[in-house]
Design a protein that fits this description.
Elements lengths: L1 H25 L1 H10 L21 H7 L3 E11 L8 H6 L8 E14 L3 E4 L1 H4 L4 E5 L5 E10 L4 E6 L20 E6 L7 E12 L10 E4 L11 E3 L5 E8 L10 E5 H14 L5 E2 L2 E5 L2 H6 L8 E6 L4 H5 L6 E5 L2 E2 L3 H9 L6 E8 L2 E8 L1 E2 L6
Amino acid sequence: MLRRFWLLFAQVATVCVAALFVIATLRPDILARVAGKNNVVLVQEMVPSLAAPKIESLADAARKAMPSVVNVYTSKEVRQRNPLLDDPLLRRFFPGLSEGEPRRATSLGSGVIVGSEGYVLTNNHVIEGADDIQLVLADGRRLRATVRGSDPESDLAVLKADGKDLPAITFGKLDNVQVGDAVLALGNPFGFGNTVTHGIVSALGRNHLGINRFEDFIQTDAPVNLGNSGGALVDSGGNLIGVNSAIYSQNGGSQGIGFAIPVSIARPVLEQIIRDGEVTRGWLGVEPQELTPEIAVAFALKDVDGVLIRGILKNGPADRAGLQVRDVVLEIDGRPTRDGPALLQQIAALTPGHQAMLKVLRDSKPFELAVIVGKRPKPAG
Protein backbone atom coordinates (compact mmCIF):
# COMPACT_ATOMS: atom_id res chain seq x y z
CA MET A 1 0.00 0.00 0.00
CA LEU A 2 2.77 2.45 0.95
CA ARG A 3 4.60 1.71 -2.27
CA ARG A 4 1.47 2.51 -4.34
CA PHE A 5 0.99 5.79 -2.41
CA TRP A 6 4.57 6.97 -3.21
CA LEU A 7 4.16 5.99 -6.85
CA LEU A 8 0.94 8.02 -7.09
CA PHE A 9 2.62 10.99 -5.35
CA ALA A 10 5.54 10.88 -7.75
CA GLN A 11 3.22 10.83 -10.76
CA VAL A 12 1.20 13.81 -9.46
CA ALA A 13 4.37 15.79 -8.71
CA THR A 14 5.72 15.07 -12.19
CA VAL A 15 2.47 16.23 -13.82
CA CYS A 16 2.46 19.43 -11.70
CA VAL A 17 6.07 20.26 -12.57
CA ALA A 18 5.34 19.63 -16.26
CA ALA A 19 2.26 21.87 -16.12
CA LEU A 20 4.22 24.61 -14.37
CA PHE A 21 6.93 24.41 -17.03
CA VAL A 22 4.37 24.70 -19.84
CA ILE A 23 2.66 27.70 -18.18
CA ALA A 24 6.00 29.41 -17.48
CA THR A 25 7.00 28.93 -21.10
CA LEU A 26 3.75 29.83 -22.88
CA ARG A 27 1.96 32.13 -20.41
CA PRO A 28 4.46 33.73 -18.02
CA ASP A 29 1.96 36.54 -17.37
CA ILE A 30 -0.18 34.11 -15.33
CA LEU A 31 2.71 33.47 -12.98
CA ALA A 32 3.40 37.21 -12.75
CA ARG A 33 -0.21 37.86 -11.64
CA VAL A 34 -0.03 35.07 -9.09
CA ALA A 35 3.29 36.36 -7.77
CA GLY A 36 1.83 39.90 -7.55
CA LYS A 37 -1.00 38.69 -5.27
CA ASN A 38 1.60 37.37 -2.85
CA ASN A 39 3.66 40.61 -2.97
CA VAL A 40 6.56 38.78 -4.59
CA VAL A 41 8.52 40.66 -7.27
CA LEU A 42 10.26 38.58 -9.90
CA VAL A 43 13.26 40.37 -11.45
CA GLN A 44 15.11 39.05 -14.48
CA GLU A 45 18.60 40.50 -14.81
CA MET A 46 20.07 40.79 -18.31
CA VAL A 47 23.55 39.46 -18.82
CA PRO A 48 25.78 42.55 -19.34
CA SER A 49 27.35 41.21 -22.52
CA LEU A 50 23.91 40.71 -24.04
CA ALA A 51 22.42 44.03 -22.88
CA ALA A 52 21.09 46.31 -25.63
CA PRO A 53 23.36 49.33 -26.20
CA LYS A 54 22.11 52.64 -24.86
CA ILE A 55 21.20 54.95 -27.74
CA GLU A 56 21.57 58.60 -26.82
CA SER A 57 19.53 61.23 -28.61
CA LEU A 58 21.36 63.77 -30.78
CA ALA A 59 18.53 66.28 -30.42
CA ASP A 60 20.65 68.58 -28.23
CA ALA A 61 23.42 68.63 -30.83
CA ALA A 62 20.95 69.43 -33.62
CA ARG A 63 19.24 72.10 -31.50
CA LYS A 64 22.59 73.75 -30.81
CA ALA A 65 23.85 73.76 -34.42
CA MET A 66 20.70 74.37 -36.49
CA PRO A 67 20.38 78.14 -35.84
CA SER A 68 23.87 78.61 -37.30
CA VAL A 69 23.14 76.85 -40.62
CA VAL A 70 21.70 79.00 -43.42
CA ASN A 71 20.19 78.29 -46.81
CA VAL A 72 22.11 79.98 -49.63
CA TYR A 73 20.28 81.05 -52.79
CA THR A 74 22.34 82.51 -55.64
CA SER A 75 21.62 83.82 -59.10
CA LYS A 76 23.65 85.13 -62.01
CA GLU A 77 23.07 86.42 -65.50
CA VAL A 78 23.96 84.02 -68.32
CA ARG A 79 23.63 84.16 -72.08
CA GLN A 80 22.79 81.09 -74.12
CA ARG A 81 25.16 80.96 -77.08
CA ASN A 82 23.53 80.89 -80.49
CA PRO A 83 24.85 77.75 -82.27
CA LEU A 84 24.63 79.56 -85.64
CA LEU A 85 27.55 81.74 -84.53
CA ASP A 86 29.85 78.75 -84.96
CA ASP A 87 29.26 78.72 -88.72
CA PRO A 88 31.54 81.34 -90.40
CA LEU A 89 29.43 81.31 -93.60
CA LEU A 90 26.25 82.21 -91.71
CA ARG A 91 28.08 84.93 -89.76
CA ARG A 92 29.24 86.40 -93.07
CA PHE A 93 25.78 86.61 -94.64
CA PHE A 94 23.91 87.30 -91.38
CA PRO A 95 26.12 89.78 -89.48
CA GLY A 96 23.21 90.63 -87.17
CA LEU A 97 23.37 87.29 -85.34
CA SER A 98 23.72 87.87 -81.59
CA GLU A 99 24.59 85.78 -78.54
CA GLY A 100 20.94 85.58 -77.48
CA GLU A 101 18.89 87.12 -74.71
CA PRO A 102 20.34 87.05 -71.19
CA ARG A 103 18.56 85.05 -68.51
CA ARG A 104 18.90 84.48 -64.76
CA ALA A 105 20.29 81.16 -63.59
CA THR A 106 19.64 80.21 -59.97
CA SER A 107 21.20 77.64 -57.68
CA LEU A 108 21.01 76.61 -54.04
CA GLY A 109 23.36 75.53 -51.30
CA SER A 110 24.09 75.91 -47.62
CA GLY A 111 26.37 77.88 -45.34
CA VAL A 112 27.46 78.13 -41.72
CA ILE A 113 27.46 81.29 -39.61
CA VAL A 114 30.95 81.49 -38.11
CA GLY A 115 30.87 85.05 -36.78
CA SER A 116 28.09 86.92 -34.99
CA GLU A 117 28.91 90.01 -37.09
CA GLY A 118 27.69 88.21 -40.19
CA TYR A 119 30.51 86.04 -41.53
CA VAL A 120 29.30 82.85 -43.24
CA LEU A 121 31.47 79.94 -44.41
CA THR A 122 30.41 77.98 -47.50
CA ASN A 123 31.81 76.22 -50.58
CA ASN A 124 33.34 78.23 -53.39
CA HIS A 125 31.37 76.24 -55.97
CA VAL A 126 28.12 77.31 -54.27
CA ILE A 127 28.68 81.04 -54.90
CA GLU A 128 31.09 81.02 -57.86
CA GLY A 129 30.07 83.58 -60.47
CA ALA A 130 26.97 84.71 -58.55
CA ASP A 131 25.99 88.37 -58.64
CA ASP A 132 23.15 88.06 -56.14
CA ILE A 133 23.32 86.05 -52.91
CA GLN A 134 20.45 85.65 -50.45
CA LEU A 135 20.66 83.87 -47.09
CA VAL A 136 17.68 82.41 -45.27
CA LEU A 137 18.24 81.83 -41.56
CA ALA A 138 16.67 79.09 -39.48
CA ASP A 139 14.30 81.65 -37.92
CA GLY A 140 13.03 82.68 -41.37
CA ARG A 141 14.98 85.92 -41.75
CA ARG A 142 16.27 86.68 -45.25
CA LEU A 143 19.56 88.58 -45.54
CA ARG A 144 21.57 89.80 -48.51
CA ALA A 145 25.24 88.78 -48.57
CA THR A 146 28.40 89.64 -50.49
CA VAL A 147 31.55 87.60 -51.07
CA ARG A 148 34.30 88.57 -48.65
CA GLY A 149 36.79 86.24 -50.35
CA SER A 150 37.15 82.79 -51.88
CA ASP A 151 39.74 80.04 -52.21
CA PRO A 152 39.10 77.73 -55.19
CA GLU A 153 42.00 75.43 -54.25
CA SER A 154 40.24 74.36 -51.05
CA ASP A 155 36.72 75.04 -52.43
CA LEU A 156 35.91 77.43 -49.59
CA ALA A 157 34.42 80.93 -49.57
CA VAL A 158 33.49 83.46 -46.91
CA LEU A 159 30.36 85.63 -47.19
CA LYS A 160 29.51 88.80 -45.28
CA ALA A 161 25.82 89.08 -44.46
CA ASP A 162 23.96 92.30 -43.67
CA GLY A 163 23.19 91.37 -40.09
CA LYS A 164 24.39 91.60 -36.50
CA ASP A 165 24.25 89.36 -33.45
CA LEU A 166 23.81 86.28 -35.61
CA PRO A 167 23.99 82.79 -33.99
CA ALA A 168 27.58 81.69 -34.69
CA ILE A 169 28.48 78.01 -34.52
CA THR A 170 31.05 76.58 -32.10
CA PHE A 171 34.18 75.09 -33.68
CA GLY A 172 35.24 71.58 -32.75
CA LYS A 173 38.70 70.00 -32.98
CA LEU A 174 39.63 67.40 -35.57
CA ASP A 175 42.03 65.84 -33.06
CA ASN A 176 38.99 64.67 -31.08
CA VAL A 177 37.31 63.02 -34.10
CA GLN A 178 37.59 59.27 -34.61
CA VAL A 179 36.28 56.82 -37.18
CA GLY A 180 32.95 55.55 -35.89
CA ASP A 181 31.96 58.80 -34.13
CA ALA A 182 28.35 59.89 -34.61
CA VAL A 183 27.91 63.02 -36.74
CA LEU A 184 25.09 65.16 -38.09
CA ALA A 185 24.98 66.78 -41.54
CA LEU A 186 22.93 69.97 -41.64
CA GLY A 187 21.94 71.84 -44.78
CA ASN A 188 19.39 72.66 -47.44
CA PRO A 189 19.00 69.51 -49.60
CA PHE A 190 16.92 70.02 -52.76
CA GLY A 191 15.80 73.40 -51.38
CA PHE A 192 13.65 71.80 -48.67
CA GLY A 193 15.12 74.07 -46.00
CA ASN A 194 16.94 73.17 -42.79
CA THR A 195 17.36 69.39 -42.70
CA VAL A 196 19.38 67.15 -40.37
CA THR A 197 20.73 63.72 -41.33
CA HIS A 198 22.61 61.30 -39.12
CA GLY A 199 25.57 58.99 -39.68
CA ILE A 200 29.09 58.22 -38.56
CA VAL A 201 32.61 59.20 -39.55
CA SER A 202 33.52 56.53 -42.11
CA ALA A 203 37.15 57.57 -42.68
CA LEU A 204 39.60 60.41 -42.10
CA GLY A 205 42.28 61.93 -44.29
CA ARG A 206 40.72 61.04 -47.64
CA ASN A 207 42.75 62.46 -50.54
CA HIS A 208 43.67 61.62 -54.15
CA LEU A 209 40.01 62.26 -55.06
CA GLY A 210 40.74 64.95 -57.64
CA ILE A 211 38.13 67.31 -56.15
CA ASN A 212 40.35 70.05 -54.71
CA ARG A 213 44.02 70.93 -54.88
CA PHE A 214 44.32 70.53 -51.11
CA GLU A 215 42.43 67.48 -49.83
CA ASP A 216 42.16 65.94 -46.38
CA PHE A 217 38.46 65.05 -46.34
CA ILE A 218 36.32 63.60 -43.58
CA GLN A 219 34.27 60.77 -45.12
CA THR A 220 30.80 60.19 -43.69
CA ASP A 221 27.74 58.08 -44.43
CA ALA A 222 25.36 60.81 -43.20
CA PRO A 223 23.09 61.37 -46.26
CA VAL A 224 24.25 64.44 -48.19
CA ASN A 225 22.42 65.57 -51.34
CA LEU A 226 22.20 68.42 -53.83
CA GLY A 227 21.97 71.64 -51.82
CA ASN A 228 23.86 70.31 -48.79
CA SER A 229 27.14 71.74 -50.11
CA GLY A 230 28.52 74.34 -47.72
CA GLY A 231 26.48 73.03 -44.80
CA ALA A 232 27.75 71.90 -41.43
CA LEU A 233 29.07 68.52 -40.34
CA VAL A 234 28.88 68.55 -36.54
CA ASP A 235 29.87 66.15 -33.79
CA SER A 236 27.60 64.78 -31.06
CA GLY A 237 28.14 67.98 -29.10
CA GLY A 238 26.88 70.19 -31.94
CA ASN A 239 30.37 71.54 -32.74
CA LEU A 240 31.51 72.18 -36.31
CA ILE A 241 34.09 69.63 -37.50
CA GLY A 242 33.66 69.97 -41.26
CA VAL A 243 32.00 71.71 -44.21
CA ASN A 244 30.00 69.35 -46.44
CA SER A 245 31.50 69.58 -49.90
CA ALA A 246 30.95 66.59 -52.19
CA ILE A 247 29.42 63.14 -52.54
CA TYR A 248 30.32 60.00 -54.40
CA SER A 249 27.36 59.13 -56.58
CA GLN A 250 26.59 57.29 -59.79
CA ASN A 251 23.09 58.73 -60.14
CA GLY A 252 23.30 62.16 -58.47
CA GLY A 253 21.73 60.99 -55.20
CA SER A 254 23.26 60.07 -51.86
CA GLN A 255 24.88 56.63 -51.79
CA GLY A 256 26.31 56.79 -48.31
CA ILE A 257 29.69 58.32 -49.16
CA GLY A 258 30.00 62.03 -48.53
CA PHE A 259 33.06 64.23 -48.05
CA ALA A 260 33.50 67.23 -45.76
CA ILE A 261 36.38 69.72 -45.61
CA PRO A 262 37.73 69.43 -42.05
CA VAL A 263 38.02 72.41 -39.70
CA SER A 264 41.80 71.93 -39.74
CA ILE A 265 41.73 73.27 -43.33
CA ALA A 266 38.62 75.47 -43.15
CA ARG A 267 39.54 77.54 -40.10
CA PRO A 268 42.92 78.88 -41.35
CA VAL A 269 41.31 79.73 -44.70
CA LEU A 270 38.44 81.49 -42.92
CA GLU A 271 40.78 83.52 -40.70
CA GLN A 272 43.00 84.61 -43.61
CA ILE A 273 40.05 85.68 -45.75
CA ILE A 274 38.46 87.68 -42.92
CA ARG A 275 41.81 89.33 -42.12
CA ASP A 276 43.29 89.83 -45.61
CA GLY A 277 40.49 89.14 -48.08
CA GLU A 278 42.54 86.33 -49.64
CA VAL A 279 44.50 83.19 -48.80
CA THR A 280 48.30 83.26 -48.89
CA ARG A 281 50.18 79.96 -49.07
CA GLY A 282 53.79 78.90 -49.12
CA TRP A 283 55.39 77.66 -52.34
CA LEU A 284 58.61 75.86 -53.28
CA GLY A 285 58.05 75.22 -56.99
CA VAL A 286 58.28 71.42 -56.89
CA GLU A 287 56.30 68.64 -58.53
CA PRO A 288 56.02 65.65 -56.16
CA GLN A 289 55.45 61.99 -56.98
CA GLU A 290 54.41 59.16 -54.70
CA LEU A 291 57.26 56.88 -53.71
CA THR A 292 55.68 53.56 -54.70
CA PRO A 293 57.37 50.21 -53.99
CA GLU A 294 58.19 49.89 -57.71
CA ILE A 295 59.89 53.31 -57.79
CA ALA A 296 61.73 52.53 -54.56
CA VAL A 297 63.15 49.35 -56.11
CA ALA A 298 64.13 51.20 -59.31
CA PHE A 299 65.96 53.86 -57.28
CA ALA A 300 67.51 51.28 -54.91
CA LEU A 301 65.72 52.76 -51.91
CA LYS A 302 64.88 50.50 -48.97
CA ASP A 303 62.52 51.26 -46.08
CA VAL A 304 62.17 54.90 -47.13
CA ASP A 305 59.12 57.01 -46.27
CA GLY A 306 59.06 60.26 -48.19
CA VAL A 307 58.10 61.97 -51.44
CA LEU A 308 60.05 61.82 -54.68
CA ILE A 309 60.71 65.11 -56.51
CA ARG A 310 60.10 64.58 -60.22
CA GLY A 311 60.01 68.21 -61.34
CA ILE A 312 61.45 71.55 -60.20
CA LEU A 313 60.48 74.97 -61.54
CA LYS A 314 63.49 76.81 -62.88
CA ASN A 315 64.52 79.75 -60.67
CA GLY A 316 61.85 78.77 -58.13
CA PRO A 317 62.60 78.62 -54.37
CA ALA A 318 63.56 74.92 -54.43
CA ASP A 319 65.75 75.36 -57.51
CA ARG A 320 67.60 78.30 -55.96
CA ALA A 321 68.19 76.29 -52.78
CA GLY A 322 69.76 73.41 -54.72
CA LEU A 323 67.02 70.77 -54.59
CA GLN A 324 67.27 68.36 -57.51
CA VAL A 325 65.01 66.04 -59.48
CA ARG A 326 65.07 62.49 -58.02
CA ASP A 327 65.70 63.82 -54.50
CA VAL A 328 63.43 62.36 -51.82
CA VAL A 329 62.03 64.80 -49.27
CA LEU A 330 61.75 63.09 -45.88
CA GLU A 331 60.82 66.00 -43.59
CA ILE A 332 59.96 69.69 -43.62
CA ASP A 333 60.85 71.56 -40.43
CA GLY A 334 60.98 68.26 -38.57
CA ARG A 335 57.58 67.01 -39.75
CA PRO A 336 57.56 63.80 -41.85
CA THR A 337 56.22 64.01 -45.41
CA ARG A 338 54.31 60.76 -45.74
CA ASP A 339 52.87 61.34 -49.26
CA GLY A 340 52.36 63.94 -52.00
CA PRO A 341 49.23 65.60 -50.58
CA ALA A 342 50.88 65.84 -47.14
CA LEU A 343 53.94 67.46 -48.70
CA LEU A 344 51.85 70.05 -50.56
CA GLN A 345 49.82 70.87 -47.45
CA GLN A 346 52.94 71.28 -45.34
CA ILE A 347 54.46 73.60 -47.94
CA ALA A 348 51.21 75.57 -48.24
CA ALA A 349 51.15 76.08 -44.46
CA LEU A 350 54.60 77.72 -44.52
CA THR A 351 54.86 81.50 -44.33
CA PRO A 352 56.30 83.16 -47.46
CA GLY A 353 59.76 84.53 -46.65
CA HIS A 354 60.27 81.89 -43.94
CA GLN A 355 63.37 79.69 -44.10
CA ALA A 356 62.30 76.06 -44.05
CA MET A 357 64.64 73.16 -43.33
CA LEU A 358 64.20 70.15 -45.58
CA LYS A 359 65.59 66.72 -44.75
CA VAL A 360 66.45 65.19 -48.12
CA LEU A 361 67.73 61.85 -49.35
CA ARG A 362 70.03 62.00 -52.40
CA ASP A 363 71.90 58.95 -53.70
CA SER A 364 70.86 57.10 -50.51
CA LYS A 365 72.56 59.75 -48.35
CA PRO A 366 70.52 62.05 -46.06
CA PHE A 367 71.30 65.75 -45.67
CA GLU A 368 69.54 69.00 -44.77
CA LEU A 369 68.71 71.86 -47.12
CA ALA A 370 67.58 75.40 -46.23
CA VAL A 371 64.91 76.87 -48.54
CA ILE A 372 63.43 80.37 -48.49
CA VAL A 373 59.69 79.86 -48.96
CA GLY A 374 57.99 81.76 -51.78
CA LYS A 375 54.36 82.86 -52.17
CA ARG A 376 52.14 80.43 -54.02
CA PRO A 377 50.88 81.93 -57.32
CA LYS A 378 47.13 82.20 -57.72
CA PRO A 379 45.57 79.42 -59.85
CA ALA A 380 45.05 80.30 -63.50
CA GLY A 381 41.53 81.17 -64.59
